[in-house]
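# nightly structure sweep
# worker-07 picked up a monomer target from the shared queue
# config: single-sequence mode, recycle default, output format = structure tokens
# input follows
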Amino acid sequence: MAPSSSHIMNILLLHGALGTERQLAILAESLDHTNCRRFTFSGHGDGEVPGEGLSFELFLKDIDAAMQRSDGPVHLFGFSMGGYAALLWAARNPGRVASVSTLGTKVVWTPEGLQKELRKLDPALIEEKVPAFAAGLAAAHGPTRWKELVKHTADLMTRLAAAPLLTDDVLASIEAPVLLMVGDRDTTAVPEDTLLTARKLKDAGVMVLPRTCHPFEETDLDLLITQLMRFWEGA
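# output follows
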């Protein structure tokens, strides 16, 4: 589907925690007639986790580097953790963002919600309970490095829950239009919490995708692309 505008859209895709740019490959390939780019966040894929660990400051620098190759405002799309980074970057860089769209991004953190997520981030349990997932992580990040990445991701979530970066004031400062998407069966981002987040933004809409859980790989891409293109053209 081609944009109605004569200008080619600049789009930057941001993957989720424990992912790489390959997570969004099929989406990128489907966005015809756009200038669509993606990259792998620091500490993921072939990159070693830095000594200071993972942080959103590190991820924002990754976006800075990607944006240096951009001509004009960019539509940011982020899945899960990538959506959190996209909203943060938009808050700090008004005028450089045409829009922000997220899918399955958890903004509201509670002690109970944190513990629920941390239980999914135990390398030994991942190997025991979901060996296929463990094999996928090993292939994406290295046979030993993936376990360190999982531990650092758990640390990042713990710090984020204790001191959220997307505070009410930060959310309210975002000038660009925002589309928050979430699956109706997503137990990570949670539709109700996504609605609460939208009310704190200046210009935001929420779309609940039917029969959809959290993993990006289970998302109906045709539906996702249709809604994204409609939002981008309107923005």
